[in-house]
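Morning F.,

Quick status update on the modeling queue. The single chain you submitted on Monday has been processed. Sequence for confirmation:
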Amino acid sequence: MVKPFVPQLVYVEPNAMEYPLAQKLVTKFKNMNIEVRETTSHNQIRNLPGENHFQKYRIAKSTLVIGIRKTLKFDTSKPSAEYAIPLATGCMGHCHYCYLQTTMGSKPYIRTYVNVDEIFEAAIDYMEERAPETTRFEASCTSDIVGVDHLTHNLKRAIEFFGKSEHGKLRFVTKFAHVDHLLDADHQGKTRFRFSINDEYIIKYFEPGTSRLHERIEAAVKVAEADYPLGFIVAPIYLHDGWKEGYREMFEKLDASLPAHTRKDLTFEMIQHRFTKPAKRVIQENYPMTKLELDESKRKTKWGRYGIWKYVYQDDEQEEIKDTLGSYVHKYFPEAKIEYFT
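Structure tokens below.
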């Protein structure tokens, strides 16, 4: 069982201590005998412990920065939502394929933002701009927000904020099972709580530092019993020896665990494995022993939204993935909706 995240080292940015959440977190960590350092900016963090890149990278992944979100312009978040709401950045997991490795560059530490009310005020502006249409906000574009929320409760506040909103809905996805503090949140049915699931092979070899499949499913049952709209993201869908059997077993386990009354509004999102040339370089540097297949010659290219080519599966492989996993969804969860395959 993966224990809830506790940072080894904490940094505090200037002006963050003007916010009650920062004061509360710093007191908490000092009482836990965790070293708290001041920094002028997260970009100025230098000299992390460690004798080589491998050690420094792992210590950075267990470092928490308490700061202020200065940019209150939200990114778009297609296809899952209209906008990404920034509550945290970075992740304590060690998923080999993760795109955050390249977007975060040499700063893979976790940042949590303490000016949450200002972030909510920006969200209100976005909702008013689109009203009376519903505006969906994705809270896990730049982090696994559940992985840090037992410390901050920012996500819980966001769930209750959108529960009270007239035109807003919240979405997020997690690979962590530490959900107990979120079960009593007053969500009003306006937050879709999604879990990232995969077959045992992928979780075992490519997702270290995250909750196991059975733990995620157990957490999903708790969430469904708390009347949250529930969803699952099957990602990344990765072709390996025995992949069809592996994914079938995953759906069988989910089917065996999820009570019938929790399936009335179930969604699935399907995302195939993809990588870029910069991502490949970073993955091989951070996880030199990875079994991840990153052979460009086996893939086709697809133009990405950030102006860089992505390597995805060939057309016939993509069709086989869609047909195979689609048939599993229809067999085990006939009332569920597949929102997209990408």
